[in-house]
């Protein structure tokens, strides 16, 4: 990396450039100051709207309850992010956002209940 080799003194870190894991490594080294700046960026899952299974709102709710957004931000983004509650409401600096959206809290039991009947039960370890 150009910063570590001394080739440059400052770099911009964003989701298009330096990965969050590299930003965390630089911050943890004690040699660099990493400043997290607010940036509107959304990482999303997209599903096939023609899927018979996904036409059922209960299945879509089950998927939402099954996603542990806090853990995703902590582990995949190294803590550099805020869990979105939906496509609208993730960035309060955007005029059309709705910060009052409650979203879905991680709840595996509600996920199982909502998906009941769609998938055969199976043991997990």
From TrEMBL:
Domain of life assignment: Bacteria
Keywords: Signal, Transport
SUPFAM superfamilies to which the protein is assigned, alphabetical: Periplasmic binding protein-like II
Intracellular or extracellular location(s): Cell envelope
Domain Solute-binding protein family: 2-113
A GO term for molecular function: peptide transmembrane transporter activity
Gene Ontology annotations of biological process type: peptide transport
InterPro entries, per database record: SBP_5 (IPR039424), SBP_5_dom (IPR000914)
The keyword Signal is annotated on this UniProt entry: yes
Range of residues in the leader sequence: none
Pfam families, per the entry: SBP_bac_5 (PF00496)
Name of the protein described by the UniProt record: Extracellular substrate-binding protein
Organism of derivation: Calderihabitans maritimus
